[in-house]
Every structure is written in C-alpha cells, then in structure tokens.
Amino acid sequence: MAYIGRFAPSPTGPLHAGSLVAALASWLDARAQGGRWLVRIEDVDTPRCPPGTDRLILDQLARCGLLPDEAPLWQSARTERYAEVLEQLKLQGWAYPCGCSRKDIAALAAAPHERHGELVYPGTCRDGLHGKQARAWRLLTTADQAHTQPLSIDWHDRRLGAQRQCLSTAVGDFVLKRADGLWAYQLAVVVDDADQGITDIVRGEDLADNTPRQIRLQQLLGLPLLRSLHTPLVLGADGEKLSKQNGAAALDLSSPEEALRQAAMHLGLTLQARGLPELLSEAVAAWPAQLKRWHDAAH
Length: 299
Fold this sequence. Notes:
alpha/beta, 3-stranded antiparallel β-sheet, about 35% helix
C-alpha cells in the first residue's frame, strides 16, 4: 500500500513551536517512505477560526519548505459528506440523539469522573430522550447495541507501543454532531482520512487518546485502520504542553532554518547541514534511525 500522510492543523491561531514539530514529523515520515504528504485545514469549529489564519498557516509551512503534494482540503467545505456518514451510523443503530446539557451530566449522581476537562457521558439518552429535546448526536460505545458488553480498543503505536483503552468507561458515548449544529472532530477526521486515502497518522502524543474513538468509527464504517505514530510533546516553561489554548507564541520564522533545526532536535535529530533544502534532506536520511530507536525503546 502506498504511503499517504497528512498534517491537519486547526486554524484557531498561527503555528507555534509544537505545531512545527508535528508538521515536520509527519512530513519526514512520508518523505522517508517515498510517500505523499497532504495538508488538511481542520476548520470544522468555524467560530473559533479567525479569518485568514488558514492562509497564514500554509504560508508558515511553505517558508519552512514543507509543501503538500496536492491542494489542501478544508473541512468547512465537507459538511454534506459528514451528514451522509452520520445517517449511515443512525441506520446501523450506533448513533442516537442526546438531549443532555453539560449541566445535566454534571448533576447526575452516577456521573463518572472528568477526563481532560470533559465529563464522561453516562449514557443517559441511550434508551430515549425522556421528554428532552434532541441537542446532539452521540456514538454508542458498548460492544453491543443492548448496552451489556463494555468495549475495549487495542492498538499499536509506532513510538508508544501497545495501547489499550476501554471506551465504555474511559470515554463514554462521544459526540458526533454538537448541540450547536457543528460537526465533532472525531467524525470529521475519520471521514476525511478515509476519503483522502490516508494510511499513516503522525501527530503529537496529546492526540493519542483520540485514536480508540477513531478506530471504533473506522470499524463501524468498514474503513481501513491506519498506522499511527505519536511524537513527543513540546512543553512550555510551566511544564504544560505548548498549545494555542494556553497562549503559545506564534512560530518565530525570522530564521526558518533555525526553527526547523530546533523542531528536529525535539524529535531526536541533530542536524549539521546549512541551507533549507540540505537541512530537510539530512533530516529525511536520519529519520529511519530515529524510528528504530523509538521502536526499540517501546519493545
């Protein structure tokens, strides 16, 4: 199978140092395997995406020599496709309407703990809305539609090794279409990856937790499962991961070479070359050895 990878930024702000590490890793993995590298603008959460930020991100990538092999895809142009897939899941009996607000979930005495700042949904509306108005659509995360068997997902990451998550208890029934009418990330990313023929996911380790949900959707939709590689996070001075949400500074591209050199160093690559093309070429040649080091550490 021919390798197709992708970098999929959300245009809620310009790229920061952590973004460049993820972009470089995905680009290197594709180039080292003679594959194709795509860019997808994940602007499905349109209210959080300032106008022009998507073009700024594409310009930042281009200045670093990271050019996609075909025109970028925008999620905001694909809402009809997401609607088709939701209908398929409804017909299969795996998607159901939910009338619960966050306040409703928090008020339930039996509501489980929070995970990553979000309440684990206890399945209140699995058997009907109980007089509530439908707000969102959720995916059933039990192994059977009778809700009797918990569902665990096992998967393998090329850096982290063997992974397992019980979707039923760790995540709960997750949202496919939000109460505000916007499409949820989990549904959109699975549909887009399939439609673009993506074979490999290379992204930051903070997104590894999403993988079991995406695998479950792929299983239910009869889509190919993808290989994954989750890279080390870039942390700020406070020990928290760099992110747009915590105010990470925009990527300093006064010297694209130096920015790439620092990103490569975070990925375990010490580069000596001068000049952008030479630097990227050296990084591609060094990438397989770093993959082996990660593989050996995980096994």
